[in-house]
Amino acid sequence: MTIAQSTTCFRYIQDWSDHFLRLFPHRFDFIWAEHSSPSAEVEWKTESRHPLSDRLIQQGAYLFGVRFGAETSYCLLDVDTGSAYHPNNDPFALSRIVAALEPLGLVSPVACTSSYSGGLHLYFPFQYPQSSWQLAIALACLLENAGFKLQPGQLEVFPNPKPYSTDNVPSLFNAHRLPLQAGSYLLNEAFEPIWSDTCTFTSQWQLAQQRNDLASRTLKQILKQAKRKHFGVSGKAEKFVNDLNAEIELGWTGSGQTNRLLGRITMRAYIFHHVLSGGAPLVGTALVSEIVETAQALPGYSEWCRHQHEITHRAEEWAHCIEGSHYFHFGDQLKKPKPDFQDPVLTAAIEQAPSWNQRRAAATRDLIRRAIATLLEQNALPVRPTARFQALLKFGIGGASLYRHRDLWHPSHFGLDSNQTVADVFTVPVENPPDPPSSKTDSQLDCFDEASNWLSPPSLLSDNDGNKPSGKALSDLCTMLTSVVDSNHSVEPDVYQVIAEAQQVVRDAQPLSLNDSGQQEPFQAVARSARAQQLKAEAANQRQRTRMQAFLNSGDPILVAEALAWIQVNPGVLEVSQLQLDLLTKHQSEATFIERSVLLAAVESQRQRLTWSEQQVVHDLQQRFGKSSLATLSDLELQHWLKLLKQTPIDQRRRTVD
């Protein structure tokens, strides 16, 4: 016993008595939008989960629009209100547009307004369905050859030309809104609104359908004869297509041309047929049929072709030949064949060979080494990192390269053993300072007037590998350097860093001065400089502490608030009374309360945006956190839920509670 399986395809609910809706049969991937005010822009959305049914359209709760399928029985021109082709701007433009489409057999449109904006839709219905892809290209071809520019806001055609998809992902035609919705009315020959209902529209549609005579043969002829763009084909490929067309379309003009013409027909059909005519690339029997059909339709075939009795056999030979050649379907990746034999030693050597970047990095490191050696020979290697950086730039080394390979020149990378001194490494004593200082401490490390770095940019990338800076300080660097002590920001970390650096310099300088008495004078200068840095840093630190202590004891609310803010960054530095400690604790709790109130306000704003009820809020909290109230959420949970609410689209506001 066998059970018959139903092969009926899924279809939307159709009301066969509504002749108006039957004019627009393709309902997949439709667009919809809410009704808006006449002056507001409509926000369209695409619905791909189910087709558009007649009942939804008849309900009228939303605005709807449809797309085109593989075949269509009508086309549409869209002219916006501000277009140069609108009757308000050019009274004869629409007549010229209709005249440009006359070679296709389209002579009678059904005109209506698209919406309250005043834009125009011209529908051209015809009796026999045609390929939407071919019709789109033919429409665009004729209009552009007539001088009209196809672009949004001016003139658009539906179905629209679209490029061939090379990644096997189908692309959709553009959608248009259905007629006779809000603000859409039929127009007479003077483009004035007239009484509009579905019966009147259907009647005009049927009259225009009888007058528009568009046949497949006419469409293909237009595509061959007219000069047109090949959407998705450009450059050498487009020239190749045009060269093949120039040889093929003339057909036979004498004897002895069959072999060459069949070869050109085969190349065009195999390489470009899916781009020029749509569908899948041709192979096998389909390719042979296309070759034979094209050859028999060319001029001069019956008069000059001497192989008519074996044309199918000759087409099969050419199809087999091109399928085994180096030609491929346009859009496919060209896969180069690998050699059958590969020497494993040669392959391993190629894989292990350094790349171009690695070779260039090695050359740069060698250049830095030679520059360091030259400076050592000349007894001119600077002690400080910044001065050393500037000296190396003069050797033609980029600043970015020096940062990348700082292990070759930066003093902090020259570590010493307990029994080893700098003199054992270099012939010239070199200081071993820490990493380059930050912009805040550059001025405090500066003790020599001849080489001041007071207004130096914080980055060492100043001369090479970038734009040269002007003579002025970069951004607000000067203001930051001069006002750092007068702000409520902490100077403690930088001050302590300077002190530690100065002490390290002194410790490094002492063993060097004992090893070589001839070098004592330079290192004594280094020690004096380090001591000066330490004193300046301690003085700046003491001034800031004194200033903040005075603010704290002043009783002024503003100064006390600034001091309390400084204490939060630098705890344990000032003498704080119990009353002041209570104020600080209260200030911190108020900040926390304010931060949570801001979160709650943001959550309430999102709830109003989504139009959620209190029941929906409780339901969502229970599902996500197992809690039923906002008050029970921690700050972290509240922040996380606010982030989720911001990511929730508005169309999910109709959530139901299980």
Q: Can you give a write-up of this model?
A:
It contains 22 helices and eight strands. The protein is of the alpha+beta class and 658 residues long. The strands form two sheets. A four-stranded antiparallel sheet has the order 2-1-3-8, with no helix packed on it. Strands 5-6-4-7 form a four-stranded antiparallel sheet. A hairpin with a 6-residue loop joins strand 5 (110-113) and strand 6.
Give the helices and strands, then pairings.
Layout: E1 30-33, E2 45-47, H1 54-59, E3 63-66, E4 71-79, H2 93-100, E5 110-113, E6 120-131, H3 132-145, E7 155-158, E8 176-177, H4 198-211, H5 216-225, H6 236-248, H7 258-276, H8 284-297, H9 301-304, H10 311-323, H11 344-352, H12 356-377, H13 385-393, H14 399-404, H15 422-425, H16 477-483, H17 492-515, H18 520-553, H19 557-569, H20 578-610, H21 614-625, H22 635-647
Antiparallel strand pairs: 1-2, 1-3, 3-8, 4-6, 4-7, 5-6
Helix pairs in contact: 3-5, 6-7, 7-8, 7-10, 8-10, 17-18, 18-19, 20-22
